[in-house]
Design brief:
The chain is α/β, with parallel strands linked by helices and 426 residues long. The protein is built from 16 helices and 14 strands. Helices cover 40% and strands 14% of the residues. β1, α1 and β2 form a beta-alpha-beta unit. The mean pLDDT is 95.
Length: 426
């Protein structure tokens, strides 16, 4: 058995790199997205996602003729579903994109096909939701066509390398489905491929991100404790991590992105009676933006009427991904506290937040500021020269939420600098 044609549904942060990588490794790939703007931009050679090397890869795939962009699925030997799985306001998983993709595939299913779900999903999504929809085709899953779950496990900023080099987990609804998935991904994956069942594979993905979320919640609580006990959390973490079996993560303004801040809720939804620790960690991390604003107010006084510049909106450093960003939540809390907020996100200067000014340059952002906050440790923001910055702003108070700035350098340049979790400061 071999797969010559592939249809990838969803051309976002995972689907587009995946489709392009398969195409540059010789498969004929149909990339599908229901967003007309994405389809149009890709067909015009423009890439809507910032990821190092992605534009070159996509253009190579398209120019080779191996990648074509469509707004509807087409018949293929294999199908990959890589659509979003956000949650609703009540923190329940929104699987509408997954079900819509499955329904769109069903008319094209034929014997010998392989369907793989990559979208992060609650346990048993593959067998309880995806399988029944696909079997409306009249074909039997595991017999007439193969069905598997294989989660993406890549880091924004390193997606193209990690797609190829990382180990991959493939969970089939039966052994043949898992083996079929391995055959497909072996087209380009150099990392080890592990086979299991579909629900275990779903669990693995959620466990990885939930583990991280719980550990970040511990770091954020440590930062709060350090503030109360007049301890510098950054010094304390550095010392604690000298223990050979301890690796405390860094605190910050919260947890964002489409994985770590979302995936734990899928466990809470699926088994609320068994997930008290997971639920508590989510509450800690979700409340961190509000804590940051309260911390700032305690240190600098009432925020009402102050002109505050927030630097960074992405959910993590050196990417343009703003999904579920705690920095955006922090900005909203600042605005709601009465501050006049200007934001500068170097990777997305066009992003808008209601009643908040978006600056296109750092100088524009800080000119009128009374106070400056570092919310994201983008390399270019961490490298700001405080002496030069002082020439362009009247602000002389800064808050560093990510330990990105050297306190002594900023103090020498005439700034009062506060750091989240540094309880030694007055």
């Amino acid at each position: 058995m071999s797969y010559q044609t592939l249809c990838v549904l969803g051309l976002g942060y995972i689907g587009l790199p995946t489709a392009s990588t398969f195409a540059t490794h010789g498969l004929k790939v149909i990339g599908v997205d229901t967003n007309p703007a994405i389809v149009e931009s890709l067909n015009n050679g423009k890439v809507h996602i910032f990821e190092p090397g992605l534009r070159t890869l996509v253009q190579a795939a398209v120019h080779s003729g191996n990648l074509v962009i469509k707004d509807q699925p087409q018949p293929a030997d294999a199908f990959i579903i890589a659509v979003p799985t956000p949650f609703k306001e009540n923190k329940l998983a929104d699987l509408s994109f997954v079900t819509a993709a499955a329904e769109a595939i069903t008319p094209h299913l034929k014997k010998g096909n392989l369907v793989i779900l990559e979208s992060t999903s609650p346990p048993r999504t593959t067998v309880d939701i995806l399988l029944p929809i696909l079997e409306k085709s009249g074909l039997s899953a595991g017999k007439d066509f193969q069905l598997a779950y294989s989660p993406e496990r890549v880091l924004p900023g390193q997606i193209l390398r990690e797609l190829i080099e990382n180990a991959r987990v493939i969970g089939g609804i039966n052994d043949d489905s898992a083996k079929a998935g391995k055959l497909l991904y072996s087209t380009f994956v150099r990392g080890e491929i592990f086979l299991t069942d579909a629900t275990t594979a779903e669990m693995v993905k959620l466990m990885e991100n939930t583990y991280r979320d719980i550990n970040i919640a511990a770091a954020n609580e440590f930062a709060r404790l350090a503030d109360r006990f007049q301890v510098d959390i950054w010094e304390a973490i550095s010392l604690a991590n000298r223990h050979p079996r301890v690796e405390i993560l860094n605190p910050g303004p919260g947890v964002g992105g489409h994985c770590i801040s979302v995936d734990p809720w899928f466990f809470v939804e699926a088994a609320p009676d068994l997930t008290s620790l997971i639920h508590s960690a989510r509450q800690v991390n979700d409340s961190q933006p509000e804590y940051v604003v309260n911390f700032l107010e305690r240190k600098t006084g009432k925020l009402n009427g102050k002109k505050i510049t927030a630097l960074g909106l992405a959910y993590k450093p050196d990417v343009d991904d703003l999904r579920e960003s705690p920095s955006i939540e922090t900005v909203i809390h600042l605005r709601d506290a009465g501050a006049k907020v200007t934001v500068y996100e170097p990777f997305d200067t066009d992003h808008s937040i209601e009643a908040v000014i978006s600056a296109r340059t750092l100088q524009e952002a800080v000119t009128q500021a009374d106070l400056i906050i570092l919310l994201v440790g983008h390399s270019q923001l961490k490298e700001i020269d405080p002496t030069e910055l002082a020439k362009n702003t009247s602000a002389r108070t800064v808050l560093d939420t990510v330990n990105g700035w050297n306190k002594q350098e900023w103090q020498k340049a005439g700034f009062s600098i506060y750091k989240l979790g540094d309880g030694k400061q007055p």
